[in-house]
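From the pipeline queue, job 12 of 40. The input is one protein chain; the requested action is below.

Action: predict structure.
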Amino acid sequence: MLEPGNNDELPPIPGKRYFTIGEVSELCAVKPHVLRYWEQEFPQLKPVKRRGNRRYYQRQDVIVIRQIRSLLYDEGFTIGGARQRLTGEEAKTDLSQSQQIIRQMRMELEEILKLLRR
């Protein structure tokens, strides 16, 4: 689902705690109105809402959004099929999300190492 090949075109996720809807939109190559719609369709997406109903997504939310994007855009699932696939694979999702986080951190550490070697 979230193989490195599927997300090569997406930028790495920065090491921040919270992301605005605009930042997530850029990180996942999905428009903000689509993200709002997906929140209604996928129970896994629950961004923190603060003042003025502003959404703040966490790193885990960004990874789930990338999985949803991959299912819908790359694998051709319908919304219902993607929802079913995500809920049916929650145990596997935890493992794959952990692996994705580790891959992401490794990439970021390698970039830092390159900068330090200069």
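Job complete. The CA atoms of residues 89 and 96 lie 10 Å apart.
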